[in-house]
Amino acid sequence: MTLRRLQESSRAFKIDWMLVVLILSLAIISIIAIFGAIPLTPSWVNGQDLLFKQVMWYVLGFLTLAFLIYMGVDRLFSMATIFYWILIVLLGLLILDSFINLPLIYPINGARAWIQIPGVGTIQPSEFMKIILIIRASEIIHTHQQYRLEMSYWDDIVLFFKIAKILALPLVLIVMQPDTGIPMVIVISLIVMLAMSAIKPQWIIIGGVGAIALIGGIIFLFETNPQLLGQILGGAYKLNRFYGWLHPEQYILTWGAQLYTALMAIGSAGISGHGAASIAISFAEPQNDFIFAVIAKNYGLIGVGITIFVSLLFNLKLILIAINYDGLKEKYMVAGLLGMLFFQQIQNMGMVVGLFPITGITLPLISAGGSSLLSYMIPIAVIFHMSSENMNKTAH
User: Between the CA of residue 209 and those of 11, 98, 204, 212, what are the distances in Å?
Assistant: First the structure.
């Protein structure tokens, strides 16, 4: 193992320029979209400051990316456990603030999910935790598969238990903030990682049947006993999201207002949109959850097409890098990252056009937010390393 690492470290690092162009394209789309969201932001939100911070976060993100590549991505895997427990402490402090008012922690929209950094902004520990979890899970899956003695159901259950041990505590702490969006992203990404490992395919069938049964149960309760469903979901306000999703016209002034106005903005945009500085229709959270609606409103079908095309190209590029790479541990991590990215992209774009209920899940690498952006640079650094190794392998 030591000899292999020495051989790899002696190879020249080769930059994957196509991957660089795709990330820069996402950065440009993000900055243009947030600039277009400035006229829609409420009076208490400084739109110019949002734009400046997004540029700053991208610059910091690229510097972080370069530093991680220079430092060596192997250290990311070896130090993941340390970062995991640091983030557990930070998540615990956020929950503790519910009982004791701690400095630098201020609730936003009723959620305690951010820590204020003076002069910089806020950081969201849960965004970094979702990345650390896929890094730790990739190590656990790889080690388990290396030393497994037989292909059995029991052996798969042991693997599931190992993943559950690192997942349970952060998941509980994040849900308590309260936040259901990031836990959904985490669970989906880990399911994809397990599905891509050498577990028995019957588990995938069982999981699919379970998911269908869960969705069917939610629909049944929604139609027959919505009060019970509201209690299960943790509050009537979450149930109201279903009403606003299924009947936005009926609840146009309350729970369906955000979706209805977004649909109006998208539907009226046409091929080229209303323009960057237009205020044709306003809606809440234009810089975050509804950034895709901003792109559609301002730039129409052309803007939407470019955003989807670049996002798909980015996903496909990651798939190609992973397919050509030899190491399984990194492949598992990329599988988790792709599950995370694809789910967020589908859910965010889908909820804006009414295909899915509104969940507060942002559009990765495009929505405003420094924690999400910086967190994604961690696995992207590993992917740059993987791509370099692929090119070195081809050269030799």
Answer: 47, 38, 9, 5
DSSP secondary structure string for all residues of 183-196: HHHHHHHHHHHHHH
Domain endpoint, select from 205, 234, 267? 205
Cα–Cα distances in angstroms (integers) from residue 375 to residues 128, 134, 165, 285, 369, in the given order? 5, 12, 22, 21, 10
Please check whether residue 222 is in contact with residue 229, taking contact to mean a CB–CB distance below 8 angstroms: yes
- How distant, in Å, are the alpha carbons of 126, 152, 308 from that of 305? 31, 45, 5
DSSP 3-state of 115 = strand
110 within some domain: yes
- 89-102 burial code (b ≥16 CB/10 A, e <16): ebbebbeebeeeee
Tokens of 74: 């192997």
Residue pointed to by tokens 């470019």: 306
Q: CA-to-CA distance for 364 and 340, rounded, in angstroms?
A: 9
Residues 6 or more apart whose CB falls under 8 angstroms from that of 180 comprise 234, 238, 359, 360
> 372: domain range?
15-71+256-396
- Split into its structural domains, the chain has a count of 2
308 token code pair: 């989807």
Cα-Cα-Cα-Cα torsion 171, 172, 177, 183, nearest 10 degrees, comes to 30
Contact status, residue 283 vs residue 261, Cβ threshold 8 Å:
yes
Same domain for 152 and 112: yes
Nearest to 314 by CA among 31, 33, 24: 24
What one-letter code names the amino acid at 279?
I
Cα distance between residue 96 and residue 147, in whole Å:
40
In order along the chain (396 residues), what is the average pLDDT of each group of 10 residues?
Answer: 46 88 96 90 77 92 91 84 94 88 78 80 90 95 84 88 95 88 92 89 87 86 79 70 80 82 86 80 82 92 95 96 92 95 94 86 91 94 93 75
DSSP state of 13: P
Per DSSP, 11 falls in state: S
181 and 59 share one domain = no
**What is the dihedral sign for C-alpha 192, 196, 197, 202?**
positive
Query: Do 362 and 322 fall into the same domain?
Result: yes
Compute the distance between CA of residue 346 and CA of residue 142 in angstroms, rounded to an integer.
28
Q: What is the CA radius of gyration of the chain?
A: 22
Question: Do both 81 and 49 map to the same domain?
Answer: no
Tell me: do 395 and 261 sit in the same domain. Answer: yes
Which residues share a beta bridge with 217? none
